[in-house]
Amino acid sequence: MNMKKVLVTIICMTTIYLSFSQNHSTRDKEIFDKYIKEFANKGMLPTSQLITETALFFLETPYVAHTLEKEPEALTVNLGQLDCTTFVETVLALSRTIKSGNHTFERFMEYLQSIRYRDGVIEDYSSRIHYTSEWISVNEKKGILENTTSANGGVPVKFDLNIISSNPDRYTQLKNNPLLTAKIKQSEARASGYPHSYIRKQDIEKNRSGFQNGDIIGFVTSVKGVDVSHMAFIYFQKTKESPEGRLTFIHASSGEMKVVVEKLTLEQYANKSKSNKGII
Q1: Pick from 52, 23, 233: which is nearest to 122 by CA?
Q2: Closest CA to 65 of 218, 257, 220
Q3: Average pLDDT, integer, range 104-131
Q4: Could you tell me what percent of the chain has a pLDDT over 90?
Q5: In 3D, which of 8, 20, 258 has the Cα closest to residue 116?
Q6: Which secondary structure element, helix H or strand E, spans residue 49, and what is its range?
Q7: What would the pLDDT profile of 38-57 be if each residue is shown by its tens digit?
Q8: Distance CA 83, CA 80 (A)
């Protein structure tokens, strides 16, 4: 996915335990245990630093798309294969797990489910948050993150979300299922009503003072029916040429087919795509 930007400050909070169906493997538990062993004593780190270090923990992890598309709908954990969205959700859920002090796999899954599903409850395909702009709004209401786009030079933007309900045959869950498609269409209409802003791509660098390591960004696209095409984490990469930090990002890259620190700067990456308008 290529995407619009979403700058977010994460707030750790305690959530109510929810029951859920699960899809995960022994390998996922092994990766989780390795992460906990390395990060168990890092709960006192500033949230921005913890998120950044957690994102860097997954460097070189293979990029694999569509890992959530399983029937019936269930909480899917896949720590060994990530796309841009599952990468962001996983890093956020793991960081919250460390901050909570309860370093169990069950607590991690609880946080992941709360982040990924609109009401934290899994009923069917429509329960999952499919559009990044809604994902931001819903998780901000839950107190999990804060959208700081407007405070960093953002200008208003209106999204008309309909790409999923307009193309039900592209989605296994929606084929020959008009009732579920109608539910998706209702959620799209509701999400389209949320107020949003974005930072124009030509304004990214001049607003760098408002960004920090670990901020979540979404790349806003001009493609009709869609809002954000990619997600990542802000990263100020210090080099000899840029001792103050080169403004770039960490992401699960479909181009490099793995989690990487982006070679281009954030502004360069945004400008290379004609369909990209800027970031949240």
Answers
A1: 23
A2: 257
A3: 97
A4: 88
A5: 20
A6: helix 47-57
A7: 999 999 999 999 999 999 99
A8: 10
Beta bridge partners of 145: 10
**What is the rounded CA–CA span in Å between residue 228 and residue 178?**
25
What per-residue confidence (pLDDT) applies to 244? 87
The answer, yes or no, to whether residue 60 has pLDDT greater than 80, is: yes
DSSP label at residue 82: B
Contacts of 82 (CB under 8 A, 6+ apart): 58, 61, 62, 63, 64, 67, 90, 252, 259
pLDDT at 21: 55
Residues 6 or more apart whose CB falls under 8 angstroms from that of 95 comprise 10, 12, 47, 50, 51, 54
Q: Which tokens hold the place of 238? A: 């210090």
HSE-up of residue 44 (Cα within 13 Å, Cβ side): 1
Q: Which amino acid is at 179?
A: L
Q: How far apart are the first and last CA of the chain?
A: 15
Q: What is the pLDDT of residues 73-104, one digit of tens each?
A: 999 999 999 999 999 999 999 999 999 999 99
pLDDT of residue 93: 98
What single-letter amino acid sits at 248?
Answer: T
Q: Are 75 and 122 in contact (CB under 8 A)?
A: yes
